[in-house]
Amino acid sequence: MSPETVGTEYGSAAGEGRPESGSTRTTDPVFALHRGGKMQVTPTVPVRDAFDLALAYTPGVADVCTAIADRPELVHDYTWKSQAVAVITDGTAVLGLGDIGPEASLPVMEGKAILFKQFGGVDAVPIALSCTGVDEIVETVVRLAPSFGGVNLEDISAPRCFEIEDALKARLDIPVFHDDQHGTAIVTLAALRNACTLTGRSLGGLRVVISGAGAAGVAIARILVEAGAGDVAVADRRGVVHPGRDDLNPVKRDLAAYTNKAGLTGSLESALAGADVFIGVSGGTVPERVVATMAEDSFIFAMANPTPEVHPDVARKYAAVVATGRSDFPNQINNVLAFPGVFAGALQVRASAITEGMKLAAAEALAAVLAGELAADRVVPSPFDPRVAPAVTAAVAAAARADGVARL
């Protein structure tokens, strides 16, 4: 997609239309900010003279190399490995733009990397791969892994993203985290917990309907079930996912096995009748007449961007709590609330993996940030709340120790 098209469909930072020529791109604030990229590498030690050079590089560096060769675990102490994450994409599912390729994905991956640093103090390197095969991606990342303490998978289309993550987790002894899945799930659970607290409900008493059985929908369903949600049903384009369908891929067959205890079949619209919670991660539109059939004082998390499945003005007529994926409405379900702290906590204890317990701990810590401050328009904190990353970091590190994956 061209820069001009991006300007039209998604708006510039100034809220203006697209730049119509090369000359106007130089004045558009979006393009001005991105010119030359958004990040750079800076040293943490000085190289001011021959003595510094001899320590930082040859001959002094040879002593460190030899020590690591003798004791490989020292790589965490004497290189940046224990504080660096690879942000990996193949450019097949970038934001709402779809399969735009690796080069066009780089602005997003750079953005992700600076958010890691800004909010979690974690160094991250954007790596866009010119391959899309599951085996190719897995083999490439495995070969890159010695340089990093963790791998963040980003904007890889489903269902390949599930296969890639599972294969990398099996082969690597460092955290592997697909943020489109688990970051979204963590923040969604935190918001839902706080919505329950605000309205005097329990997670176990909720009937939840999720629209979308892709990366985010599957991960949200899994974490809600793990957290004890009363019942969770997931709908894709063909309706509610259930074991009786003969068109399910392996991921959806697995999903059908642990969701939809009520045995719902049929359409998303029919499933929403009487539902306590709607979670949208699919796009499309849910008509107001369908929203009106949900339970009284429901929760509506319509997270598609740029157009929520239910517009907040409509949702607020029926729901006690409304959330979206947009920054211009209250209660933004924003992954930046999760992934910097999740990785900071995992790296802090040199975790070998990110467990379900660590994700649940992250959600609980994120929800607790707003203890005593909850309101209908405030069930998740702002990404700029300075309490967020430290709280999530500490909770994830503690959970890693409890789950036996910490090495410190």
Descriptive account of the structure:
With 408 residues, the protein is α/β, with parallel strands linked by helices. It has helices at 3-10, 22-25, 29-34, 50-56, 60-70, 75-78, 102-120, 134-144, 160-171, 179-199, 215-227, 250-258, 268-272, 288-291, 312-318, 339-348, 356-368, 388-402; strands spanning 84-89, 123-128, 150-153, 176-178, 207-211, 231-236, 239-240, 277-280, 298-302, 319-324. Helix 8 runs parallel beside helix 9 (160-171) and helix 17 (356-368) runs antiparallel to helix 18. Residues 1-21 have low confidence and may be disordered.
Pick out its properties:
single chain, 408 residues, alpha/beta, six-stranded mixed sheet, four-stranded parallel sheet, 10 strands, globular, disordered N terminus
